[in-house]
Amino acid sequence: MPQTDPTKHAIIFRAIARKGWYDATSGTVSGFAFKLRSRELGLSVLKAAGCSRENCLAGLNECFGEFHLEMNRVRDLGLKVVDDNPDAADFSENHVEIVGIPIDPVTVEDKQRAEDLASDLADFSSLYYDRFGSYT
Fold it and tell me: Global pTM?
């Protein structure tokens, strides 16, 4: 899969799948928002925002809004942002993945790297869109 062009998509967006991923009181994003779940090879993000109360562009059944983060900061962590495979049945022009996070880490080093990356991604993410006024 080709890498996403950071000059065209300097900002990328992560759907908020769980309300607890954001603390409105402190304005902080939880590292849990950036942890790979089983069977994931990368973190799902979007090139462009545009969700509404009626429509979640990420295709989630439950979505509370979006975070935004700078692609170059993601790349500075040694991660890649790659476009969807255009031949895939579920291809979306707007969908990309952050890859390079250890998948199903077993070693102490891989577990620590996955934790550190989740924390770093959360640290430079911020709330972009509050879909249902959940955080006000």
Answer: 0.91
Tens of pLDDT, residue by residue over 56-94, are 777 777 889 999 999 999 999 999 999 999 998 888 899
Residue 25 above 90 pLDDT?
A: yes
CA distances from 81 to 1, 10, 123 (A): 10, 11, 18
Nearest Cα residue to 69 out of 130, 1, 135, 9:
9
Q: How wide is the angle at C-alpha 77 spanned by C-alphas 97 and 122, nearest 5°? A: 70
DSSP string, the chain: -PBP-TTT-SEEEEE--SGGGEETTTTEE-GGGGPPPTT-SSEEEESS----SS--TT--SS--EEEEEEHHHHHHTT-EEEEPPTTSTT--TTEEEEE-SPSS--SHHHHHHHHHHHHHHHHT-EEEEETTSTT-
Q: List the one residue out of 47, 29, 61 whose CA is nearest residue 97.
A: 47
pLDDT > 70 fraction of the chain, expressed in percent and rounded: 99
Predicted pLDDT of residue 9: 96
Tell how far CA 122 is from the center of its chain.
Answer: 9
